[in-house]
Design a protein that fits this description.
This protein is α/β, with parallel strands linked by helices. The protein contains eleven helices and nine strands. About 40% of the residues lie in helices and about 10% in strands. It is globular.
Length: about 290
């Protein structure tokens, strides 16, 4: 979806009046670069992001868990994830923003247990703990209250589609923060309308953006143009191809933030390097069961 609009920029993005701030914060998602999944490995990984100037970080320490697991199997994995989170908190200090992504791996009871275990670690948010649907709205509302009582926000909805998809969750008060993704939510103009809708409900806008460089370039424009923003997600140091695929045209976050001048040239400021792309195709090995 990002490639199709790469040569154009919406009127909302061109209008300087839509730029609510000269600088917008970003946070480093370190999860996929963290190959050593021990507490020590997570701590070492996040220190690299600290050294790069970031002051806000996201991890997914519960990826070996499943919502269907019995308590006897799930509880040790929850404790292991809490230990990873505690190691990251120690590495970044007591006040840096820390977010935990759960990838829908909990049920309501195990999510409550996990929130209790994380309560002393000063989390900014607890993300996507359980499956998201109209059937789980009541459970999400209860988890939001439980998370808020423990000092953290509840966050989710990274795969929802258009404003209509978010509205039941807004009306129910399911989340403190919602995370529309430009790839799914309907593109930049719809993302800005979604951000405005969030404002009417007192919900924070934080675009989901752990994807490739074209989606990132589009998401950066959206973040700079949105009326309000909690923070923009950025995959941190996963592969040099992230920059190479667009000819190293992407701006870097300075001090964990992007400035309005970082939006690039007209359009989204980035396009795929044909040479790099063709070289990747020439060395790829394709496997198919068809």
């Amino acid at each position: 979806m990002g490639c199709k609009g790469a040569g154009r920029q919406s009127a909302a993005l061109r209008d300087p009046g839509r730029r609510a701030a000269a600088e917008r914060p970003a946070y480093a998602n370190i999860n996929r670069r963290t190959l050593d999944r021990s507490p020590t490995g997570f701590a070492a990984s996040v220190r690299d992001a600290v050294a790069a100037g970031y002051t806000a970080f996201k991890i997914a320490p519960f990826d070996d868990l499943s919502a269907a697991m019995p308590d006897a199997e799930a509880n040790p994995l929850i404790e292991a994830g809490i230990a990873r989170t505690a190691a990251v908190r120690e590495a970044i200090g007591p006040d840096a923003r820390l977010m935990v992504d759960c990838h829908w791996r909990f049920n309501e009871a195990s999510a409550r247990h996990c929130i209790d275990g994380l309560a002393g670690l000063n989390l900014h948010w607890f993300e996507c703990p359980i499956a998201e649907s109209v059937e789980t709205l009541d459970a999400l509302k209860r988890l939001r209250a439980h998370a808020n009582a423990a000092g953290m926000r509840l966050t989710g909805l990274e795969m929802e589609i258009r404003r209509e998809g978010f509205r039941p969750f807004l009306e129910a008060g399911a989340y403190d923060v919602m995370m529309p993704d430009a790839k799914y939510a309907g593109g930049p103009a719809e993302m800005l309308r979604i951000a405005e809708e969030f404002g009417r409900f007192g919900v924070e806008f934080s675009p989901h953006n752990p994807s490739g460089p074209i989606c990132h370039a589009q998401s950066l424009h959206i973040a700079l143009a949105a009326p309000t923003l909690d923070a923009l997600e950025l995959q941190f140091d996963e592969t040099p191809l992230f920059d190479a695929l667009v000819g190293k045209a992407l701006p870097e976050a300075k001090g964990g933030a992007f400035a309005a001048s970082d939006a690039g040239s007209p359009g989204i400021g980035a396009a795929f390097s044909i040479a790099v792309t063709m070289d990747l195709e020439s060395v790829a090995h394709w496997h198919s069961n068809v």
